[in-house]
Amino acid sequence: MHAIYEKPQTFIDKATHFCPGCGHGIVLRLIAEILDAWGIRGKTIGLAPVGCAVLAYNYLDIDMCEAAHGRPPAVATGIKRVHPDHVVFAYQGDGDLAAIGTAEIIHAANRGENITFIFVNNAVYGMTSGQMAPTTLLRQKTVTTPSGRDPINSGHPIRVCELLAVLDGSSYLERVSLSSPENIRKTKKAIEKGFKTQMEKKGFSLIEILSPCPIYWRMDANEAMRYIDEEMTRTFPLGVVKDWEQKN
Amino acid sequence: MKQLLTGNEAAAEAAIQAGCRYYYGYPITPQNELINYMSIRMPEVGGAFIQAESEIAAISMVHGSAAAGGRAMTSSSSPGISLKQEGISYLAGSELPCVMVNIQRGGPGLGDISASQADYFQAVKGGGHGDYHTVVLAPSSTQEMADLVYDAFDLADKYRNPVMILGDAQIGQLMEPVEFHKKPKKNLPAKSWALTGAEGRKKNVVKSFYPVKGQLEEFNAHLQKKYRTIEEHEVRYEAINTHKADVILVAYGTSARICKEVVKKSQQYKFRVGMVRPVTLWPFPKEIIRKVSERVECILTVEMSAGQMVEDVKLAVEGRCPVHFYGRTGGGVPTSLEIIKKIVEIVPDNRAANTLLQLAEVK
User: Fold this and answer.
1) This prediction's pTM
2) Can you tell me the ipTM of this complex?
3) With an 8 Å Cβ cutoff, is B74 touching chain A?
4) In this structure, are residues B302 and B339 in contact, taking their beta carbons and an 8 Å threshold?
5) A191, B3, B212, B227: most buried by Cβ count inside 10 Å?
6) DSSP string computed for A204-247
7) Taking CB atoms and an 8 Å limit, are B69 and A44 in contact across chains?
8) What is the domain extent for residue B104?
């Protein structure tokens, strides 16, 4: 009988610690599906971040390394220099990648490190109880922006893909979302493109994934999906920002 | 064949010869000869060299290469080593082997770029957060720099622990003849824990995170047990004239070179000065210092700091004899005359010691 749908081998069969409605489980599963389908589990090394996905290595059945908060791009660089023919990816949240680790991601991109970055942007710090992220929207309420993010005191949401696009070292940058089955399929395609970019040694790839955090957005799951489509995408438009296959 | 090299260059070449193929650093005086040398030599041997965007990134790259099973190294000087503390704590917590060179300069803050030994506490007491130790080796010559860097990689692999070479601006920049003795690698354990891709085996995870209650305490007990083993087996020191001495000097690195001069001068007089030069600052050579403290009038610790190692000397002596301190800071280097004057000051009956003073002053 032909299986239409099954649990990826690379995804360890256990309950995750993620909150109800969280997007992390979906993204980790997509990675596992790709590693299975491409048969590259044994030659892939992942980086887990500090933040909600800190325990990613408990769910993916591959070699994985911890990194200090913000440092996955540098740690991944060190791994890739030892294993240049392996697939190395770093899984990072918005605080990890766009606040404390800003220097590391910019310089990894600038060196054109042949590594794939899975950047989960949920516009909030979930692990630490819902504080402002560098990607928190203007007027968005968080624990540390109780009246909504005011740019005069707290700055503006950082558009990571656009920021990295100006660097000559970046090769593939795309922003996707988890707001619908259709968008999840697009997310999977984007991650595949990121891994392809790396396997063909085309350099730095980053997939920014707009992901729901209903708990700290104080919404139910449906509202969170609508929030991505109607609010987040106005600040963070979906689509390819840079693609080495479409030189223009 | 001997080569004329700075201590910094000797450290770099020794690392290459010890099989280090991953070097990541950020320029800072007075260790620049090291990163400059690596930028030329690493490509020659097919290794990786990256001038990182920061000290934090450099130690994190070391983290990655060490986790992937490579022999990795970084180097810096005091302010840069402060930045690396985050990474060093993670490396210790992940039990990753690597070598770090600190060519100390004056502090605190930006301080200056002259020789200093004021990072002793930071190096031997951990430095970053958590209960951990790095093995700390203190060369006092260019030749010893080369030899210790080679050993540092073996020690790191043997114990899965970061190893620090603690030098200073003089040890790093002084040019001396140096020979690279290629020693056979010791029987080191295979890196079965390394991240190489999980093909045909269970996955490996390199981490320092133990969120389940009880696990972290268990892991810390394992670390402490490892540290006790290192203390038991890896202490190194040089003892000079300790059997016939009235007073013992304790000093390492540049300070030890100057103290050696005082020891040498004293040999022709009735008043005898001996010395203990710790080569491993951690593990600290407590046993020899305890032993000599039982038969001398007093001990004088000489450092280029406001008094850091002297605390460990006192802990080793446990009150068996007085422990004195002489130090210079902020780029000041003790002279042999200053050390002799201090000896005269601290020895209760100083008639014999005075003869030393005459010698030093006549000269």
Assistant:
1) 0.97
2) 0.97
3) no
4) yes
5) A191
6) EEEEEEE---HHHHT--HHHHHHHIIIIIHHHS--EEEEETTS-
7) no
8) 3-186+207-233
